[in-house]
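Q: My labmate handed me this sequence with no annotations at all. I'd like to see what the chain might look like in three dimensions before we decide whether it's worth expressing. Could you predict it?
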Amino acid sequence: MQNSASSVTSNAGPDLSDRRTTTARTIPATVEEDSSSPHRLGPQHSGSTGLALRSEATPRVGENTHDDEVITPGELGNSPEEGGRNARVRHKKGGKKTKAHMRISSLNIKGRTSIDNEEGTQEKVNQIPNMMRNRRIGMLALQETHYTEDYVAEVTARFGDTIHIEYSRPVGRRASRAEGVALVFYKPTTNVLGLEKREVIPGRSMIVASQWHGEDVLKTMVGYAPNAAKENKEFWQTNEKFIDEYPEWTPDAVCIDANLVPEAIDRLPAHEDDQEAVAAMKSFLRKCDLVDGWREENPGEPRFTFTQETDCPSHSRLDRIYLKRSRIAQSRSWDMELTKIDGIKTDHKRVSCEITTAEAPEQGHGRYTAPLYVAKTLKMVQLVDKTGKELMNKMMLAAGEQRTEEVNPQTLYAKWKRTTGDELRREAKTIIPRAKKKISELQEKL
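A: Here is what I predict for the chain of 446 residues:
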């Protein structure tokens, strides 16, 4: 992993004296120095930075936009609840309005193409825009992509209005290996102005800073750890060394195929992985204060994202999303899903979660609404018809001289709503498990 370690220095500390804008295909996002700041991002850097997030779509610091709005320098920092300052990059007038929540997903895509017996070789990227739209994914982390500069340029020409890709590929003699990571943004719902990228280990790990909502900057690391225990350990050590050197790039989220599990419960048959590699992984997670959100929400539950097809299949939860501890309370809807339904063939499941901002208003449960597939069952239709007619007769009697404080149309209707709602819930408890079981059986067949 010496090549990987050396790549930290070469990729993390660019020569800021060169102010030429590189092409988006080579380095999709670059860093612009704020000359007024005493701090610099480079080998001599310490403390916070004076940076402006920019990409080719974003003007230079101090430059006017077409709407005569000046982009001002900001500072990369932690989330507001941690007391840090976020990058203060103003979008151009008429820029994209983003929601206060975003779905993040991670998937080992297992190469660029798949072979279909009926349709031949299929490019998996063709299915990504539809999958992101249908699943409402704002940001999709991909591992084992095998993307090249020319390929990303070709994809951008086809889907540039829908998705934006930041990627990292191996260099030198490693360029032909089964590696590569990428972060895909769904442009109709996600801001892609001012993206900033750092490659830690080319083809294995990179960090992308994005101003995803308001002034909140989310630093997302995409990682694909090696299989071999020794290289896996060095992977985590190299990433930790990078964070030691550039603490302002500490990730808020890590989307990774770790190729190991820290606990035996995440393998079936259950067994422990190489302890040195696990120790290196845990050290990195502690350094960045990262938490396994799915495990926090589902303690003790054995679920898996990868199945090794052999005579005796083994299962493991290799694919994970880690969030900074301060952001866990702002996350929800952790899940694992098959992607064959979306037309992407891979032996890994897609893992996902939804993040919100600290300023997002708290929403209650709202009023109960019976699903149509429950309300339209013959049993419920007959029940509502019978009890509804009885209610009408009682209300007519209670509207006249027989009206009292306890028995009147309002109290009768309220009682009927409660009892009918209880019956609908009971019916849903019998229908929904059957439906889920059938869906699981169909997914297993896929």
